[in-house]
Design goal:
With about 250 residues, the chain is mostly beta strands. About 0% of the residues lie in helices and about 50% in strands. The strands form three sheets. Strands 1, 13, 14, 15, 16, 17, 18, 19 and 20 form a nine-stranded mixed β-sheet that branches.
Length: about 250
């Protein structure tokens, strides 16, 4: 059965140079839950950061965190001494593992992004940070694999049975959601608008179907879509400082 989480049901927090919409993916079920994650997909922050925004050095532990940059540039500094500019052409995956510190600053170009928190398969794995330099064509409606488990050979490795794709279909396109046997789709409308059967979805909405493949998306306004394919039976640790919150 198709289930939808509307943007109007997720709160906007902050103001000024730091605003975010905190999304708990399990809320798409619209029922009381002991845990508001969707399998290992724990939380998504849809953030808008103005020039001058700074998130000072802070700790992550046992969190898998994808920084999906859609607009702008952000400077990442971390406890390994790296300083890297991330942008829509350079995405970042932090496998926080046993301990990892980083900070984020927006010195020149305001940012719109998703920060995606995933529960790893086990606690206290070796920490590392990865970057994916990619050509970006907002006219390309094909799904591109961004991250996945080690065996997927995805550009960014996630220590969990979850695959992450994006696509940028144009108005008038029809696009099929990617599928893999035994995995459940959860799709976020980053920008634009789509029609899925009788359902109209706009920026900030999400859709899933736990029982079958989602129908094709009819793109009614040029869009950016982010799709997650999730093994809801995969083991995960609750030890994450952020992803382990129920």
């Amino acid at each position: 059965m198709i289930q939808i989480l509307k943007s109007s049901n997720t709160p906007i927090m902050g103001g000024g140079t730091f605003k975010l919409r905190m999304i708990r993916p399990g809320q798409i079920h619209h029922k009381p839950l002991d845990d508001s994650a969707f399998g290992s997909l724990s939380r998504i922050d849809h953030a808008n950061l103005g020039v001058g925004a700074l998130v000072s050095m802070h700790l992550h532990r046992n969190d898998e965190i994808l920084s999906y940059m859609w607009k702008g540039e952000m400077v990442h500094r971390d406890s390994t001494g790296q300083e890297v500019v991330i942008s829509p052409n350079r995405l970042m995956m932090m496998n926080a593992g046993s301990s990892f510190y980083h900070e984020e600053a927006v010195p020149e170009k305001k940012v719109e992004m998703l920060q995606i928190f995933i529960r790893p398969r086990e606690k206290d794995l070796p920490p590392r940070v990865q970057f994916y330099d990619r050509p970006l064509d907002f006219r390309n409606s094909e799904w591109k694999l961004i991250g996945g488990p080690e065996e997927s050979n995805a550009p960014l490795t996630i220590y969990q049975q979850i695959y992450i794709y994006d696509a940028h279909p144009q108005s008038g396109d029809t696009i099929e959601v990617p599928s893999l046997q035994g995995l459940t789709p959860w799709v976020y409308i980053m920008e634009g608008a789509v029609q899925v059967g009788e359902h109209s979805l706009i920026k900030g909405d999400a859709i899933t179907d736990s029982n079958s493949q989602l129908p094709p998306f009819q793109v009614t306004e040029t869009a950016t879509l982010v799709a997650f394919l999730i093994d809801q039976n995969a083991p995960f640790t609750m030890a994450g400082l952020f992803s382990g919150v129920r």
